[in-house]
Design goal:
Strands 3-2-1-4-5 form a 5-stranded antiparallel sheet. The chain contains 4 helices and 5 strands. The chain is of the alpha+beta class and 157 residues long. It starts with a helix and ends with a strand. It folds into 2 domains: 73 residues, no CATH class; 77 residues, OB fold (Dihydrolipoamide Acetyltransferase, E2P) (Beta Barrel). Helix 2 packs antiparallel against helix 3, helix 2 runs parallel beside helix 4 and helix 3 packs antiparallel against helix 4.
Length: 157
C-alpha cells in the first residue's frame, strides 16, 4: 500500500496547492491586459494617512481538490475491509476542509489603505492596494494617482 508521503512525492500535489493558492495580486507598478493601451487620467496629491490592510485573494479550489485527494488517500490506509472505504470518505472530507483553509491562508497578502488629498481639493479619498516593497509609501509623500477603467494606481512622484 502506498503511504501518504509517497503519494505526495509521486503526484507533487503539495507544490501545486501552494502555487495555486498564491494567486498574485499585482503591485501598483504592474498594469494588467485591460489597462494596456487604454486612456487613463493622472492626478497628483499627498498622502494624509496609511494603515496596513489584509488583501484576500480569490480561492481557486485547488486546496479543496488537493486536500480531498490527499485526505482520501491517507484515510483509505486505515482499517481493514470496508474500513478502507469509510476511512477514505472521512479522510477526503477532512482533507477538503484542511486544504481549503490552507489555500485561504496562502492567498492572503499585506496591503495598504491609503488616504490622500488631490491637489486643489479638500476632499480625502481612500484606496486599498498591495504593498510594493520596491516603492514604499509614507504619510506626507507627494503621489501620482493614475486612474483607469480597472482601478487606481498610487505611486510616489
Amino acid at each position: 500500500m502506498p503511504t501518504t508521503a509517497s503519494c505526495l512525492r509521486a503526484f507533487g500535489l503539495l507544490p501545486l496547492l501552494a502555487l495555486a493558492a498564491c494567486a498574485n495580486l499585482p503591485t501598483p507598478s504592474v498594469y494588467g491586459p485591460g489597462e494596456v493601451m487604454q486612456k487613463m487620467v493622472e492626478r497628483h496629491g499627498v498622502i494624509v494617512a496609511i494603515r496596513e490592510a489584509t488583501l484576500q485573494g480569490s480561492p481557486t479550489g485547488a486546496g479543496i481538490v488537493a486536500g480531498g485527494g490527499l485526505g482520501g488517500l491517507a484515510g483509505s490506509q486505515l482499517g481493514g475491509g470496508r474500513g478502507h472505504i469509510a476511512g477514505g470518505v472521512v479522510g477526503a472530507a477532512l482533507g477538503q476542509a484542511a486544504g481549503g483553509a490552507v489555500e485561504q491562508q496562502l492567498a492572503r497578502r499585506t496591503g495598504l489603505q491609503i488616504s490622500y488629498k488631490e491637489d486643489g481639493s479638500d476632499e480625502v479619498y481612500v484606496t486599498v492596494q498591495p504593498v510594493d516593497p520596491q516603492h514604499p509609501l509614507a504619510v506626507g509623500d507627494r503621489i501620482r494617482i493614475v486612474e483607469g477603467a480597472s482601478g487606481i494606481h498610487i505611486s510616489r512622484e
